[in-house]
């Protein structure tokens, strides 16, 4: 079902007023974790001021260490929903168990399945049984074929509102947190009919690489770029080294627009 062979036309996923995969490349931005209403509203307002309508933020955080901040849970979803209503934005957040899908339907415009859950098949089946847009991330060590099979799980349950997101893979390289598999983007565009996104934050893990990685992703045909923005990354409860502050984000988006890689309002 995900293969382009039987479905030659691009799938366009409607998220509120935005069409993802319609040929206009977009930005998805927001903090790594939802930490407070004030934090989310500050970022949301800054994004909205620049015409970005897609707000991300983690409420359930799959952390490597059980002693790290685990997210605000449903409180975080409530904050996101409020921000979406207040600033007229669409909100995107990850859920980690099949039991959270029903709750997520009430609060989110897009359900994210994180890299660590790309092969959580029960979760894939559950989101596949809804018609909510799903943003599926590539697993840390998943091949493109495994990624496509995970997508097939979602589509085989009937949900066609699916987007794929390259977010870097594990390699021997230690200079970056993961290795952005840039060629996965055109491969997935060729092999599937689904929108393909690039998460430049989790792939590089480095603030100084967000702009060049975003340029590369847009140039190679990503339908959207995801990047993390926090009012004060130094005190962020997660991913402190890789989030942009608001002035860095403004510079980031201005450069992409000046260089005609991103249109105004995208
Ligand atoms: C995220 O986007 O918040 C996240 C945890 O990313 P990933 O699942 O790609 O690591
Ligand atoms: Mn993060």
Average predicted confidence as pLDDT: 97
Shape: globular
CATH evolutionary superfamily: Aldolase class I
Q: State the secondary-structure class.
A: alpha/beta
List the total number of helices. 9
Domains (count): 1
Helix content class = 25-40%
The appropriate CATH architecture is Alpha-Beta Barrel
Low-confidence stretches: none
The strand count comes to 10
Beta content comes to 15-25%
What's this, in brief?
By secondary structure, the protein is of the alpha/beta class. It has helices spanning 37-49, 74-87, 101-107, 121-128, 144-156, 184-191, 200-204, 210-219, 246-258, and strands at residues 13-15, 18-20, 26-30, 54-56, 90-94, 110-113, 134-137, 162-166, 196-199, 224-228.
Question: What does this 3D model show about the protein?
Answer:
It comes from Salicibibacter kimchii. GO terms for molecular function: 3-deoxy-7-phosphoheptulonate synthase activity; aldehyde-lyase activity; chorismate mutase activity. With 266 residues, the protein is α/β, with parallel strands linked by helices. The chain has a single domain, classed as TIM Barrel (Alpha-Beta Barrel). Helices cover 34% and strands 15% of the residues. It is built from 9 helices and 10 strands. The strands form 2 sheets. It has an 8-stranded parallel sheet with strand order 3-10-9-8-7-6-5-4. A two-stranded antiparallel sheet has the order 1-2. Strand 6, helix 4 and strand 7 form a beta-alpha-beta unit. Helix 1 packs parallel to helix 2 and helix 4 packs across helix 5. It is globular and about 45 Å long. The two termini are 29 Å apart. The mean pLDDT is 97. Bound molecules: phosphoenolpyruvate (PEP) and manganese (II) ion (MN). The site of phosphoenolpyruvate has 10 residues, from loops.
